[in-house]
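Database export, one record per block. Field names are fixed; values are copied verbatim from the stored entry.
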Amino acid sequence: MYNVDLNQVNFLIHGTTVATNALIERKGVPTALITTKGFRDVLHIARQSRPKLYDYFARRPDSFIAREYRFEVDERMLYTGEVDTPLDEEQVYKIAKILEEEGIGIVAVCLLHSYANPAHELRIREILKEAAPQLRVCLSCETLPEYKEYERSSTTVINAYVMPIIEKYLGKIQDEIKKMGIQSDLHIMQSNGGVATSQEASKKSVQTVLSGPAAGLLGGLVTAKMIGIEDIITVDMGGTSFDVSLASGGKPSYTVESDIDGHIIKVPMIDIKTLGAGGGSIAWVDAGGALQVGPESAGADPGPVCYMRGGTRPTVSDANAVLGYLNPGFFANGDMGLDVEGAKKPSMSTSQNPWG
């Protein structure tokens, strides 16, 4: 479209929301957790803080790992790095057999004080590789070698939960790059605004959770600087998420941890707030008859009903088309039409029509 010679591309950077979408829609891969005896429920207990202090009906978000797939092993490492209780290796072999029988493809390992001494986590990986060679293993001592048990567990589990998805996604992009004749290696925007190789991004997929929105903020800063503005608010609305960030004095705001759908990720990143309400977020009616939006998304394929690609369920974009916020005569620079009438007649899980 822009008449660019692809052979002249010598540095390619890609931003993505694949990991973000997988978390918001809870469509990661089936994952297990191995932890120290007595710490099986750390992911559920989380923190003592209550974001909704006066809401009697507030519920913690469900863990990405069901309790039956959170396993305990006898072992204990002290905060000094000394071994208090040796690792019961026989228990690990038994867990490996269970995971193989259940068809679990990846396991997160997060033991008490492994940041001080990772020996037991490393040994668990050796045993799992021996007993179940096809099993992927993600260690907390490599993902986040820091204290604070809940934060380390949550971050490691999220890394494992999205890792196979990111690997598959980046692998497809690399294949397409080669077919197109682009000479550059594939580089991935990280959540902190930095850049990593695709190989590194595949191993530490948690670093890409806010990859796309981070790239959007940096692009917004460059654009704003060109017109002499330093203080901006950026909004990045995609098919599944709605991401908002603030920059002051021409610089992004940073944080050492973020909250995605109630789950903590403790890695340095640009401070971005994510809501599960993008253009493709699906509207539905709950058991009480109330209208809900998301977190499930129609995605790019088939997409919203008005895109005329086979979508049958109403989305935010369909609502915007019906309300006249989207111009059917000049959508996507006029390259794509919108079926506004079709958007008025979506299929619902009940007979109720969300557009009134």
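Remark 1: The chain has three domains: 19-164, 211-275, 281-343.
Remark 2: Residues 281-343 form one domain.
End of record.
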